[in-house]
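== Polypeptide entry ==
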Amino acid sequence: MKLTPDFPFVQPMSVPLIPPASRTLAIIMGGGAGTRLFPLTKERAKPAVPLGGKYRLVDIPISNCLNSGIRGMYVLTQFNSTSLHSHINATYKFDHFSPSFVEILAAQQTPEGSHWYQGTADAVRQNMRYFLQRPWDYFIVLSGDQLYRMDYRDILRQHIETKSDLTIATIPVDGAVAHDFGIMQTDEQRRIIRFVEKPKDPAMQESLRIPPDLLETIGQAPGAKLFQASMGIYVFNRDVLIDCLDNDLVDFGKNVIPGAIDRLKVDAYIFQGYWEDIGTIRAFFEANLNLADENPAYRFYVAGRPTYTQPRFLPASIVRGSTIDRAIISDGSHILDAKLERCLVGIRSIIRSGSTVKNTILMGADFYEDDVHDAPVGAPPIGIGANCIIDHAIIDKNARIGDGVVITPEGKSQDADGNGYYVRDGIVVIPKNSVIAPGTWI
């Protein structure tokens, strides 16, 4: 009796393992009112604030996700979300044969509740029914107001290898600024054993220092006085996130994380690249203008890891008879016989003859003057007029600055509200769609 088959034996194909990033859902927090970034958040959600001349804040975490292989993203928001909706819908389009998506979840009334998000944890809890619809194994919670580049596969890899329940991204910070952050105390194996929100007491700060052995492991001097500041980036196992939110706690940093440390395996992922929390006007101002410096701490383009944003198909910028030193000029701009020094010039910016612009962020415009049919009667054209002097300012989108206008924070308090302008952290901010009459001194 013949027992061997007539056809050659073929070894069964092994089933390839699905990478962790493909089993991870990103939850981007953008629901806060953004009061620290007011008046930039007066008419838009915080993640929709323009950044780097042509980007939006939300482009940073989304680009990091796409470059890390994470293709499922929800953005949680509730304040002034119209422009954020428009930007995401115009930017992140995926074909029908891809499971990729970027969707906005705004606060809404449901049978389970009708209140707005009370905090980061409450925002996630209110939307859990959407997050659990698919079999995601991991959830990564991200902030919507930070500037950094991170490969999330690294934190996922550590999370899985160490069999953590929850992993929190931290960054070493100097003792001089430790009181501004939530500080994690860990042992040498990076397990978090204590969390203190913005420690002010010097004795308490001393007890939170990174251990010498861990400092040496991450390439720092053993005697360095460094602390692990929370970056607001969390990786949860699926069952752990469900368990941590099965309560009425409203905030991850203040409520959920301290409770989780006592009963779960919570580890720190120590990140040592560039990271800036740009939640204040001063931080936003400095982070943007640093892009124009000779050796910027952050670059929007790195080979193979670009920062994505809305494709606008604008013409190249026109510069005529101008003096420019340390400036980034975005698409579609016109700079005519002007002087620029350490400036960030946004899309469709117009700077007219004889104007001097220094240490200033121009956010540009959403349209050209020719596209407008209902411009304010008697208002100057969009952009910066002739013979203006502007220093240490942020000019928001669609602003109309008349001829001979002077804008400077000199002689003003660090924080003040004026007629058509605001001063925050020593920076003059001209809000979106503002009209500044010719000859005005601010």
